[in-house]
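ingest -> validate -> predict -> emit
validate: passed (alphabet ok, no gaps, 159 aa)
predict: started
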Amino acid sequence: MAASTNGDDPDQFEQLIANAFSRLGFEGQWIEGGDDTDVQMTQPEHSIVEVKARGNGMLQSPDGARIQGHQEARGADHAVVVASGFTPAAIDDANRVGLVLVTAERLAALVERTEQYGLLPESIADVLFEPGAFQDDRLDEVDDLLEDREAAAEQLVRC
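emit:
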């Protein structure tokens, strides 16, 4: 979380986000430097991730056109922006161009649920890559998925 507000060392935050997506079960890599995307995931979904550390905690604009350029250049199906927080204008911009916005805090919560319950990336991909802001309602969707899995496991044990 601290790295998301440290604009002096963006590489650290980018590497942490690449690691978070790896812990979610996605195959990907951190792309060092240059005018390119920060993280590219290839399996099970082809996606790019832009990582934005902001000292004030809020991303004003995701720069959707530039990110769409990275997405097209890499042939990715989805484009995700991770930052410590987003202004309403940033959320509007993301909705307009079909980007996914995820705060570092919510990504950490998703990693925690995945590691605790053994979720596969395929099972969370639809929720994670839905365009717009990944808010608490999406974590609720993941929790509903977990409850369904738990109920199915209990039923299986009873049989």
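The radius of gyration is 16 Å.
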